[in-house]
Design a protein that fits this description.
alpha+beta, Helicase, Ruva Protein, domain 3, Tetrahydropterin Synthase, Chain A, 12 strands
């Protein structure tokens, strides 16, 4: 009797690619799905197509992943779902050192406009960033960002809860589908504590976005169309120019000293009596280029950002100033 005849006599088998081996080691069953055994070596639960389809509908996972999870869980749907979730966690851990240079910037504001949040969801490849699963998760991230109790810190988003679910669970499920490392890159939430408005601008590629909070002298100024349009322009300006800080007082002293040392090296061959003046001039230019309020406005470079905002507030019948801003970029 050859090996195939022996197997046919011992088992009712159907062809399938598995890693099961006959426990004696004499005849590897690498192409057989064992349903029953005359000699009681092994018993496997029958996994029906309906069970696989049900789990796939519940989790969005691939057919083969669902079938393997059900087999491992002996047909228990809940256990199979846990297995698939653990697979997502394992993928996150395994790819922890991978770069996540692709993704999307998302944002959401409350209905009254007094609170707004912005975050980035990052992954490894542009292919995944454009997938339906990733886009749906990014859209969900906007909801979790607005619901998050903390005002900043990407790690806080993972604990945020919407409809009884943590974002960490939503993220894990998506990772188990894509197989890529995916993480929240940045997060910030602004809330008005007085008269003012929050304006958001996201570039058409959805990889760069800005949120800016403006304080006004009263609610009427904040509600004026001229100020709303100017606030929107401010957010767009920040997205385009990448300011380092709101004003020079917000630039770290060590950054200024580093720039001075670079400028000093550049002019070291100049006459000693003019070196200090040249360095001072370069520092002033550095502030104009990197401090938002001093930057030339992108739509009218004859005016600074501070001047444009002051003019808009005057037209609205009051005063306004930028309190803070944040700019996020994926990649």
């Amino acid at each position: 009797m050859n090996g195939r005849e022996y197997l046919a006599d011992a088992f009712t088998a159907s062809k399938r690619n598995t890693n099961i081996e006959f426990q004696t080691g004499r005849f590897p069953l690498t192409q057989y799905d064992i349903h029953s055994t005359r000699i009681g070596v092994l018993n496997m639960v029958e996994i029906s197509a309906a069970m696989v389809m049900k789990l796939r509908k519940m989790t969005g996972q691939g057919m083969m992943d669902c079938k393997r999870a059900l087999q491992e869980a002996s047909g228990d749907i809940e256990k199979a779902m846990d297995i698939l979730r653990k697979k997502g966690l394992a993928t996150l851990a395994k790819r922890a050192e991978r770069e996540t240079s692709e993704g999307l910037v998302v944002c959401k504001a409350s209905e009254d406009g007094k609170t707004a949040a912005m975050a980035t969801l990052c992954c490894e490849t542009d292919f995944v960033a454009k997938s339906d699963d990733f886009i749906a998760t990014a859209q969900a991230l906007a909801d979790f960002a607005l619901a998050c109790s903390a005002e900043k810190g990407a790690e806080n988003i993972l604990e945020a809860v919407v409809d009884g679910r943590k974002f960490s669970d939503v993220l894990t499920e998506m990772v188990s589908k894509t197989g890529e490392k995916t993480q929240v890159g940045d997060y910030a939430k602004y809330k008005l504590d007085g008269p003012g408005l929050i304006s958001i601008y996201i570039h058409f590629n959805e990889k760069v976005g800005t949120m800016v909070q403006i304080e006004t002298s009263d609610d009427n100024v904040a509600a004026a169309d001229v100020l709303k349009h100017t606030a929107s322009d401010m957010a767009m300006h920040i997205t385009a120019t990448k300011p380092m800080a709101l004003d020079k007082d917000q630039i770290a002293p060590e950054t200024i000293e580093r720039e001075k040392s670079i400028f000093a090296e550049q002019v070291k061959n100049k006459p000693a009596n003019i070196i200090e003046k040249i360095i001072e001039g370069k520092i002033r230019k550095f502030f104009v280029e990197n401090c938002l309020l001093e930057q030339p406005f992108v739509k009218d470079d004859s005016k600074s950002v501070a001047q444009v905002l002051a003019d808009a507030a005057k037209q609205a019948g009051g005063e306004a100033k930028i309190k803070r801003f944040v700019r996020f970029e994926v990649g």
